[in-house]
Write a structure and sequence with these properties.
Chain A is an alpha+beta fold. Chain A has nine helices and 28 strands. In chain A, about 45% of the residues are buried. In chain B, strand 10 and strand 11 form a beta hairpin. The chains are: A alpha+beta, B alpha+beta. Chain A: This is Dolichyl-diphosphooligosaccharide--protein glycosyltransferase 48 kDa subunit.
Chain lengths: ~425, ~675
């Protein structure tokens, strides 16, 4: 018995550092990432991408996609916080892994980077479809663009796309603008229009189309123009994040290091935008940016500091909430001018934009409406690329009490005057009546 | 296992194909040099182990990057420590000597005696292949670096035999005699070891022994694997790059050590070189080292030095009239001997030959071969050029080897002329032209058309190549985009000389979802060999289509704009109930004044009437009770005032009941006093 408890203590001591690395709300960055490859040489050919991840503190576990010992969880506990699937040709994963367990992995709030390529397998297409991304059904199709391809001396197919139609979101792609076009060679996908969680990060130009470059077209291509998405992201309702790319080469050392000149443009860049794009995107997907946390909703009457149990109609109140953003290392104050609060009972009675003190505190003040009932303070914050904040706090509002109405109404002064003059008259008259002689 | 191997093979194939899209190998260039500086970055000024240090230093040395001075101090300290310590493992000693060979930390006559004896003992007692390898190669390194020592192996032949004993019949080697598993990687190590034994042997090794090793090498070449594009590699559990590099290192040193020479198949040697060049730039330090080291071995060996034909550009622009350039160099990019390059054939996409047997001119300054003029019938399109290298074998001391033929896909691009572009609306039944507009597709036009479902839209244009032939582009799309963002794509097909598209709206109403209104017309023409690919907004057409029947399909859902989905909502502020309107305060005060007037009139009336209070009792008792009575009444009235101002009903009633009782008592006394006084008056 002694031995057992001692060994348990020992094991937990051993597990402690492991546990402290795991995914948590206080430290939302993924730490342990499983990388599935269909060839270990990808480890070397995509080493810059992997080494930037490693240098940011990620613990990468490289496995072959067909490894028979693959498992995402053991004894009901997930072994990893993130998953990178760079295995476009894999038809079946080894071990216990399949598309359902990957969907469960995302459903548990964990993150995924999925990269397909030309001739992506049905398995990879299936996982993408779960996320609202539809790859071109034609397995030999590639994105071709005869107007915005990358000028190159060795590519005569115009399948190396220089794409610069990026989503405008600081949260997803960072504050520094990606100047150089992003090189892309791979398969096109479209987004399911009914899924509003998924969005295009890198779109093709209007002249792009998806077809097999080496055969003549007999029917119009399925995907054309800027409806083609090259790289998409999905943020689930539980804030799990997914990146889906149609090109595995986009992450390769070769394209990271390659120079780029977009056809018809005089600007020549020494280095393509791929490295910056992939790095910033990986920061987003692993919650190093755009992950918000809110403190509790604080409210009180103007001039007071304590939160009342109930408000009276027409009270003036002050409302504040603290919102912080995870920077990868610590929680930094979040600055924005579009956070709003609602004073809500069945429908919003008051909707106000909060002003910020630039230190993370958002505040406003307003008058409680003259409707009584059970209200809620609601902060529902949705912004492109950021995690969704949904906070609410219930507070009742009562009408005036009997003694809270106006006490001496000037309009009633004549009545008061009548009463008191009568009383004074009575007092005088009582003397006159009793003692007159 | 089989399936996995196959899949891995396929993917590596894909990778090679991707890295090397044109299947033309480029020799090692400056991009490798700049990448090397990133790959071999020492941590805090020194490498983790001497092995890593050697790999880094060796790769940088081969690439001609001088970083020795930055690294020597820390690394040399390690080297001296390992060589000085008697307890160092053979492996560490070997790598210390390897590093020393590059950095020259210790040299000259200062022979580390302990190390030599240790290595010699190691070679004698070794049972494992790796022990043989480290000790023999270590001794070779000592021999190279330190002069004046007797390092001869007394029993070289015995050692040779015991190493040879580990070989397998298929040309591979085992790591130890008790381990049956054989490996190609080990074969490479064994060749290097045997080469070391030969060079250290005091007398010649028995030729028959060497001959058996040579047959083993040829057997090993049977296990060579091949990709479709003619590259060869050895596969093994250490990965293709490491395994192939190990074999090449072994072969090079083996060939260098013995005199009769190895006769290896030349195409396979070129294939191995192309394999390493096809890898691209590995990001892993180990792969990088293996690639560079193996290529360096191939560059300088005694069997055959591969030459690589490369093209700086495989896209020829016919408008720029650039010559086609070809370079021939060794794998590491150094100059090739004098030779000739011949364009044996140029096949177009249909497979017919356009150019035959044309020798390329040589430009000595840039060391390039070039084809400056193309035949008259050379048009835009995709070609396969077949090059041959003509080597003058007698003129070279080294045995150079090249591919028999190098096939290179070439894309010839040019400006395509677009003519006679016009758009027209036709009446369906008679085909008469309703309205016809000429188009200039190079500019966005403002064409405005209108049609109903009984009419047709016709778009036509002519594309011709610089040679005046009809050009069929890969991409010729007409896009109709409705106001509601619903898009329809139509292919413009080329028939005869003209590319033409006729849209019969009667047959298309269903496809257009019966959506009437304004459609934007966009034409995209593009091809890989077309330099002036274009995207032209022609204008718009106003379509008048019949009403949508009940059962017709609805237009598909269009994706929403992500920017509009988020963002702040309009503010809402509560509208409060307006308080009831009250008269002005002045008005109330005026009325208050009016109300007070009767009281004043009452007081004035009393004085006018001449009222008095003469019958106020004069006796002390009666006067007291009268005063108390009136005081009581006053107190009740005051209580009412207080009730109005602040008291509540309960306090008031309590006080009132007390005052009432008091009043009753003093009132009775006062009244009875008054009554008694009036009775007295009456009776008097």
């Amino acid at each position: 018995m002694m031995n057992l408890s001692r060994s348990v203590a020992l094991i937990s001591l051993f597990l402690l550092p492991l546990l402290s690395f795991s995914f948590s709300v206080d430290n939302p960055t993924d730490r342990r990432v499983l990388v599935l490859l269909d060839d270990l040489s990808l480890k070397s050919s995509h080493s810059i991408f992997f080494s930037t991840l490693k240098s940011r503190g990620f613990d990468l576990d490289f496995k072959l996609a067909e490894d028979s010992k693959l498992a995402l969880q053991r004894y009901g506990q997930y072994l990893y916080d993130g998953l990178i699937i760079f295995a476009p040709s894999t038809e079946r994963f080894g071990g216990s892994l399949d598309s359902k367990s990957i969907a469960d992995f995302v459903d548990s709030g964990r993150d995924l980077i999925l990269s397909a390529d030309t001739s992506a397998s049905d398995l990879i297409r299936g996982i993408a479809l779960e996320c609202g991304v539809d790859f071109d059904e034609d397995s030999s199709a590639m994105v071709i663009d005869h107007s915005s391809f990358s000028v190159s001396d060795v590519d005569g197919d115009h399948t190396l796309i220089a794409a610069d139609d990026l989503v405008k979101s600081h949260a997803i792609l960072g504050k520094t603008k990606i100047e150089a076009p992003v090189l892309f060679r791979g398969v096109a996908h479209s987004l399911n229009p009914t899924n509003n969680l998924v969005l295009k990060v890198l779109s093709a130009s209007p002249s792009a189309y998806s077809a097999n470059p080496s055969s003549k077209l007999s029917s119009p291509p399925q995907l054309t123009g800027s409806a083609i998405s090259l790289v998409s992201v999905m943020q689930a309702r539980n804030n799990a994040r997914v990146v889906i790319s149609g090109s595995l080469q986009l992450f390769s050392d070769k394209l990271f290091r390659s120079g780029v000149q977009k056809a018809g443009s005089p600007n020549k860049y020494e280095k393509s935008g791929n490295e910056q794009f992939a790095t910033e995107l990986s920061k987003w997907v692993f919650h190093e940016r755009g992950h918000l946390k809110a403190g509790s909703l604080v409210h009180h009457r103007v001039g007071e500091t304590d939160e009342p149990a109930i408000y009276r109609i027409k009270d003036d109140l002050e409302f504040s909430v603290e919102i912080l953003e995870w920077s990868g290392k610590s929680w930094e104050p979040y600055v924005a001018d579009d956070v709003q609060v609602q004073f809500y009972m069945m429908s919003p009675y008051v909707l106000k934009t909060l002003s910020t003190d630039k230190k993370g505190l958002f505040h406003t003040s307003f008058k409680v409406p003259d409707v009584y009932g059970v209200f809620q303070f609601k902060v529902e914050y949705e912004k492109l690329g950021y995690t969704t904040l949904s906070l609410s706090k219930q507070i009742p509002v009562r009408p005036y009490r009997h003694n809270e109405y106006e006490r001496f109404i000037p309009t009633a002064y004549p009545y008061y005057g009548a009463c008191f003059t009568t009383m004074a008259g009575f007092f005088v008259f009582s003397f006159v009546y009793l003692y007159h002689k | 296992m089989m399936a996995r191997g196959l899949a891995r093979f396929l993917v590596s194939l894909l990778l090679v194909a991707i890295c090397n899209a044109a299947s033309v190998s480029q020799p090692i260039s400056d991009s490798h040099r700049s990448a090397a500086l990133d790959v071999f970055v020492p941590l805090d000024g020194s490498y983790k182990s001497l092995e890593e240090a050697y790999e880094a230093l060796r790769s940088l040395e081969i690439l001609g990057i001088d970083k020795k001075s930055d690294l020597s101090s820390g690394t040399c300290e390690n080297v001296v420590k390992v060589l000085g310590s008697p307890s160092s493992a053979l492996k560490d000693v070997f790598y210390a000597l390897s590093v020393n060979g590059i950095l020259k930390c210790k040299s000259g006559d200062d022979v580390p005696k302990d190390v030599v004896s240790k290595l010699q003992a190691g070679a004698k007692d070794a049972k494992l292949l790796l022990d043989f390898y480290y000790s023999i190669r270590g001794l070779v390194l000592v021999k190279e670096q330190f002069s004046g020592t007797d390092l001869t192996l007394g029993d070289a032949e015995a050692i040779f035999r015991s190493v040879k004993a580990l070989s397998q019949s298929d040309g591979r080697w085992r790591y130890s005699s008790n381990n049956a598993e054989s490996s190609t990687f080990a074969a490479g190590l064994a060749f290097e070891t045997l080469a070391g034994v030969i060079s250290l042997a005091p007398s010649e090794i028995d030729q028959s022994l060497i001959q058996t090793v040579k047959t083993g090498i040829l057997k090993l070449f049977d296990s060579l694997r091949k990709y479709d594009d003619g590259t060869f590699y050895f596969d093994g559990s250490e990965g293709p790059i490491s395994t192939t590099a190990s074999v090449i290192r072994g072969l090079t040193s083996f060939a260098a050590s013995e005199s009769t020479g190895l006769n290896l198949p030349g195409d396979k040697i070129v294939g191995l070189a192309k394999f390493f060049l096809g890898v691209g730039i590995p990001g892993d330090a180990k792969d990088f080292f293996n690639q560079i080291d193996a290529l360096a071995s191939l560059e300088d060996n005694r069997f055959s030095v591969p030459l690589i034909l490369s093209l700086p550009s495989t896209v020829i622009s016919l408008t720029k009239k650039e010559p086609l350039k070809v370079k021939v160099s060794t794998v590491l990019g150094s100059k090739a001997p004098a030779l000739g390059v011949k364009l044996a054939q140029a096949l177009n996409s249909k497979g017919s030959s356009v150019i035959n047997n044309q020798e390329l001119k040589f430009d000595a300054d840039s060391a390039t071969y070039f084809l400056d003029s193309f035949p008259k019938n050379f048009d835009v399109g995709k070609y396969t050029f077949v090059f041959e290298i003509l080597l003058d074998e007698s003129a070279n001391e080294k045995a150079y080897i090249t591919e028999a033929q190098t096939k290179v896909p070439i894309a010839a691009t040019g400006a395509i002329s677009i003519e006679n572009a016009e758009i027209a609306v036709l009446d369906s039944d008679v085909g008469s032209v309703e309205s016809q507009k000429k188009l200039d597709l190079t500019k966005d036009g403002g064409v405005s058309l209108s049609a109903n479902h009984l009419q047709k839209l016709r778009l036509s244009f002519q594309l011709t190549t610089p040679l005046g032939l009809v050009f069929k582009p890969h991409q010729a799309f007409l896009k109709l985009k409705h106001e509601s963002q619903v898009e329809h794509i139509f292919l413009v097909k080329t028939s005869g000389k003209k590319a033409e598209l006729v849209l019969d709206f009667l047959g298309l109403v269903e496809k257009l979802y019966y959506l009437s209104g304004k459609y934007e017309i966009q034409l995209t023409i593009g091809d890989a060999s077309m330099e002036n690919s274009l995207l032209s907004n022609i204008g718009h057409i106003e379509l008048d289509l019949p009403e949508r029947p009940e059962k017709a399909p609805l237009p598909p859902l269009q994706p929403t704009d992500p920017y509009s989905r988020y963002g702040p909502k309009a503010e809402i502020s509560h509208i409060f109930r307006i308080p009831e309107k009250l008269p002005a305060k002045q008005l109330s005060l005026i009325f208050l004044g009016l109300i007070v007037l009767p009281f004043i009139a009452f007081l004035i009336g009393l004085t006018r009437l001449g009222v008095n209070i003469k019958s106020f009792p004069s006796s002390v008792g009666a006067a007291t009770s009268a005063l108390l009575f009136h005081g009581g009444i006053g107190a009740v009235l005051l209580l009412y005032v207080l009730f109005w101002l602040k008291l509540d009903l309960f306090t008031t009633l309590k006080a009132l009941s007390l005052l009432g009782v008091f009043l009753l008592f003093v009132g009775h006394r006062t009244l009875s006093n008054l009554a008694a006084a009036s009775n007295k008056l009456k009776s008097a």
